[in-house]
Specification:
alpha/beta; Rossmann fold; Alpha-Beta Plaits; 4 domains; 6-stranded parallel sheet; 15 helices; ion transport
């Protein structure tokens, strides 16, 4: 697959790294030679020091026969214009990153398609959706709904209250069990578990289950004492903070704190003021946080543009008794540090945007894919066809590559967990968890 990426910024470089694992034909374009130098020596791709808005550049990059053109520079006008040029030259699909939420109106989809822009990405929307999903379940670090919730994957930090520590998984995850452990993040290591593996305190365990068993999972991991989130404090009134406040369910109330007075006035025009209070102040000001009721707040969300500020603010909120904390950490170098400090959920909108685009490179029918930055792993939904290799044998006989496991499947709209003796059928939507392997190796089982 031939893929052209315009913009060697965080999204473009992260995406190039993800795609280069799968031996794709990648060209990365940027006007800054230094940005290109930071990535080209470490990954299998071609770089071009040129303007993505140039017709000559796109021709030289091979846009005439490219499968996918991805424009993720900070300039949305350049992104959209270069997509139009690439499409006119013959590129099959184009993707543009934008900064204006108004363009995401569903009724505008055909309009942009006719212009030559196949898909638009607004990272703030993706981040807000991720944050709100996490707020709905205060005891979960990460949640991923498969096929509209037919299956649920939950990333849960295990504490001393967990009932299933130090027992072999073969005794816990039997064919009739209502959950499977598909991965374990332990320190810096990601484990695709086998029957003899055990869960340990402070593991981040990934459970695959169905919606009706979520209360059961909550009980066995010892999280029943976590209160549901009703009051949320958001530090930072940027686009991500506003989108989070706008998309929260009706039973939640929020206080948005921002130190820019004119920005606060603008936020008041954008949110439902019956449920969202906007406060002009410094979210790092401890007396202000106490005065505004942080001790009775169930969730604290730090969304400023400064990763260090967000991390420290979440640590402070934790000390003040807030159970659920979320920090936006845009600097990839800080993600591991944030994890080691156990600050709660980490959101990186650039990684979310890259994951969203990532699925477009797969040529099998893949309806959803997500890169789990914390676990350095992919979770993907594949569709099994009539003659797919995956339908010819039971799961334990398939010979899946090391680092891959099947977590569940959706059949006729109903979610089912998978064991070694499961027979996958044509039409099944199969959820595969992959760590540190080429996704193309999994694709072959579904062709």
């Amino acid at each position: 697959m031939k893929i052209i990426i315009a913009g060697a910024y965080a999204i473009g470089t992260h995406l190039a790294k993800l795609l280069s694992r799968n031996n794709q034909d990648i060209v990365l374009i940027d006007e800054d030679e230094e940005r290109l130098a930071n990535i080209s020596s470490d990954y299998d791709l071609m770089t071009m020091n040129a303007s993505p808005s140039s017709l000559k550049t796109l021709k030289n990059a091979g846009a005439e026969d490219a499968d996918l053109y991805i424009a993720v520079t900070p300039d949305e006008n350049m992104n959209m214009n270069s997509c139009m040029i690439a499409k006119a030259l013959g590129t099959k699909k184009t993707v543009a990153k934008i900064n204006n939420n108004e363009f995401m109106e569903p009724k505008l989809g055909d309009f942009f398609e006719n212009l030559g822009i196949s898909s638009l990405i607004y990272p703030e929307n993706l981040a807000a959706r991720d944050i709100v999903n996490g707020l709905k379940m205060s005891w979960v670090r990460q949640r991923w709904d498969v096929h509209d919730g037919a299956l649920i994957m939950l990333g849960i930090k295990l504490r001393e209250t967990c009932e299933i520590l130090n027992e072999p998984l073969k005794d816990l995850c039997k064919p009739e069990s209502p959950y499977h452990i598909v991965a374990i993040k332990r320190g810096d290591d990601t484990i695709i578990p086998r029957g003899d593996d055990e869960l340990k305190m402070y593991d981040l365990a990934y459970f695959m289950t169905t919606r009706n068993y979520i209360p059961y999972i909550r009980k066995i991991v010892g999280k029943e004492h976590y209160v549901d989130v009703k009051n949320v404090m958001i530090m930072g009134g940027g686009n991500t903070g506003v989108r989070t406040a706008q998309t929260m369910p009706e039973y939640m109330n929020a206080k948005v704190i921002d130190n820019d007075e004119s920005r606060c006035e603008r936020i008041n025009e954008l949110v439902d003021t019956d449920r969202v209070m906007v406060i002009n102040g410094d979210g790092r000001d401890l007396p202000l946080l106490i005065e505004e009721g942080i001790r009775t707040t169930q969730a604290f969300v730090a969304l400023t543009g400064n990763a260090e500020t967000n991390i420290l603010a979440c640590l402070t909120a934790k000390r003040l008794g807030v159970r659920k904390t979320v920090a936006m950490v845009e600097n990839f170098d800080y993600v591991r540090m944030a994890e080691s400090l156990d600050i709660g959920t980490i959101v990186n909108k650039k990684a979310l945007a890259a994951s969203h685009i990532y699925q477009m490179m797969l040529d099998t029918e893949v309806s959803n894919i997500r890169f789990l930055m914390t676990a350095n792993a992919d979770v993907a939904e594949f569709v099994a066809h009539q003659d797919s290799k995956v339908t010819r044998k039971k799961v334990y006989e398939l010979g899946l590559p090391q680092g891959a496991t099947i977590g569940g499947l959706v059949r006729h709209g109903e979610g089912h967990l998978v064991s070694g003796g499961t027979q996958i059928e044509a039409g099944d939507i199969v959820v595969v968890f992959c760590h540190n392997i080429n996704m193309n190796k999994i694709e072959k089982f579904f062709k």
